[in-house]
């Protein structure tokens, strides 16, 4: 994955406060959209009569964000952060308008794809800006502020979006953010146009074509799963080959066989994301259609999950301070097992085998363990590479997560589209996520390279 490379001056002045405010507001808007959309998707699919496209609404956004992050990184390298940020904000806003005005589900999916292109660049923006424009003494504080900016949308985004959708329209969740972006964008982009000269590129677009190949190939697999004909089989076969070839340039060798060290850590992250975030894309629809919950009630479950994930991240940080990095492998192993347990309880409650309260208890346990194990695994992976390799590894960690969640959403959406019984479709879909959650058990035993 491309990353921004800058020349750091010996004494960099603190940037204007407007840049900090603008950057955090951009993060808030993107985070709110990210947390809110999953809640209103059931109503979108019902209104646009496009349940068969349900999986694509998430997969298109995720795959586009993978490619958008690479393109924005290259653009920022060559033309400066201001242009990269401005283009990402404009593309993201265009996607919001297309989705909010969509007359049918295929058009809505196109809007989600355009949103993803912009969101991919905006997701990497805080790290690039903090590295390029903030002195060393201010970076930790800004990174903490960026992380905290996700907490409010995690707590309020799903519930607020469901209230907007039930009171006015789900369309307001999308186009209502465009005026906010128009007010926020100058606060972020304006200060980036001042001060340092644009950074100079340090290499060719080495990650551009593999990222494009991976995006297109994964999209072919997802569309093939959705189709019940020969063309679907051909798309799956061609997409699988394309994904395998593209992955060689983006990820280290040995991932499929869970080679010790970094390959196992990346697979652990990928399958944990497949299991938990893949289930997250299906929960609102399942709770709405199988258990009769309103969008607001289903959204409250996602809010609780976001809060407990944040709590798990805090717990992991405190355990690191007290016990040091040596305890990370054990936390990952325990977290992986409890994650599966929580996901199993959630699944049973959603499908009606347990009381509905079990869904909340199970999802809290799942997200709490995800916060602990996910962060511990990321830190363990980052500690295994030299500083000069941290940028590439950060891209690999982000790419494997996006790819696996997109595939999980595609599989779940394909089952919903192809099976007449929604109960059977959700049973199989959640069963797939439970099976995926077992892979981190094995990967967690192979995180340390052999001496």
Offer a quick outline of the entry.
The protein is built from 17 helices and no strands. It has 451 residues and is mostly helical.
Care to describe what's here?
The chain is built from 17 helices and no strands. It has 451 residues and is mainly alpha-helical. Helix 6 packs antiparallel against helix 12 and helix 12 packs across helix 14. The protein is globular, with a radius of gyration of 21 Å. The N terminus is likely disordered.
CATH superfamily of the largest domain: MFS general substrate transporter like domains
Compute the number of structural domains.
Answer: 3
Helix-strand category: mainly alpha
SSE ordering: HHHHHHHHHHHHHHHHH
CATH topology tier name of the largest domain: Growth Hormone, Chain: A
CATH class category of the largest domain = Mainly Alpha
Shape: globular
Query: What is the average of the pLDDT values?
Result: 85
**Count the helices. How many?**
17
Based on DSSP secondary structure assignment, what is the total number of beta strands?
0
How much β-strand is present in the residues?
Answer: under 5%
What's the arrangement of secondary structure elements?
Elements: H1 17-47, H2 54-79, H3 81-100, H4 105-133, H5 136-149, H6 151-167, H7 171-175, H8 177-192, H9 208-226, H10 230-250, H11 262-290, H12 295-323, H13 328-350, H14 357-382, H15 390-418, H16 422-436, H17 439-443
Helix pairs in contact: 1-4, 1-5, 1-6, 1-8, 1-11, 1-12, 2-3, 2-4, 2-9, 2-15, 3-4, 3-8, 4-5, 6-12, 9-10, 9-15, 11-12, 11-13, 11-14, 11-15, 11-16, 12-14, 13-14, 13-16, 15-16
């Amino acid at each position: 994955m491309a990353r921004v490379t800058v020349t750091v001056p010996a004494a960099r002045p603190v940037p204007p406060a407007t840049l900090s405010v603008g950057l955090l507001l951009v993060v808030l808007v993107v985070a709110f959209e990210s947390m809110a959309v999953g809640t209103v998707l059931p109503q979108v699919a019902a209104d646009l009569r496009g349940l068969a496209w349900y999986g694509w609404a998430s997969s298109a956004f995720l795959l586009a964000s993978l490619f958008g992050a690479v393109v924005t990184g290259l653009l920022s390298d060559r033309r400066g952060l201001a242009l990269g940020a401005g283009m990402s904000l404009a593309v993201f806003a265009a996607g919001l308008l297309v989705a909010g005005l969509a007359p049918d589900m295929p058009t809505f999916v196109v809007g989600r794809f355009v949103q993803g292109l912009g969101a991919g660049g905006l997701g990497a923006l805080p790290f690039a800006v903090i590295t390029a424009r903030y002195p060393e003494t201010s970076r930790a504080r800004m990174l903490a502020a960026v992380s905290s900016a996700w907490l409010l949308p995690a707590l309020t985004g799903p519930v607020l979006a469901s209230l907007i959708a039930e009171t006015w329209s789900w369309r307001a969740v999308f186009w209502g953010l465009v005026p906010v972006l128009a007010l926020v964008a100058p606060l972020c982009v304006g200060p980036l146009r001042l001060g340092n000269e644009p950074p100079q590129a340090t290499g060719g677009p080495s990650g551009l074509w593999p990222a494009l190949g991976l995006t297109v190939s994964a999209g072919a697999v997802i569309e093939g799963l959705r189709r019940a004909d020969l063309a679907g089989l051909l798309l799956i076969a061609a997409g699988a080959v394309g994904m395998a070839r593209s992955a060689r340039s983006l990820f280290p060798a040995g991932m499929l066989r869970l080679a010790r060290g970094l390959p196992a850590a990346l697979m652990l992250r990928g399958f944990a994301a497949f299991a938990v975030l893949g289930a997250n894309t299906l929960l609102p629809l399942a709770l709405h259609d199988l258990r009769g919950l309103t969008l607001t009630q289903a959204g409250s479950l996602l809010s609780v999950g976001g809060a407990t994930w944040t709590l798990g991240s805090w717990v992991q940080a405190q355990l690191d301070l007290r016990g040091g990095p040596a305890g990370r492998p054990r936390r990952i192993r325990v977290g992986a097992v409890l994650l599966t347990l929580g996901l199993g309880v959630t699944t049973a409650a959603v499908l009606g085998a347990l009381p509905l309260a079990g869904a909340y208890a199970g999802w809290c346990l799942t997200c709490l363990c995800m916060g602990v194990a996910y962060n511990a695994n990321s830190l363990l992976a980052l500690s295994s590479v030299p500083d000069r390799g941290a940028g590439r590894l950060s891209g690999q960690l982000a790419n494997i997560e996006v790819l696996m969640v997109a595939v999980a959403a595609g599989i779940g959406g394909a089952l919903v589209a192809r099976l007449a019984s929604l109960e059977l479709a959700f049973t199989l879909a959640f069963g797939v996520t439970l099976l995926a959650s077992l892979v981190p058990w094995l990967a967690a035993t192979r995180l340390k390279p052999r001496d």
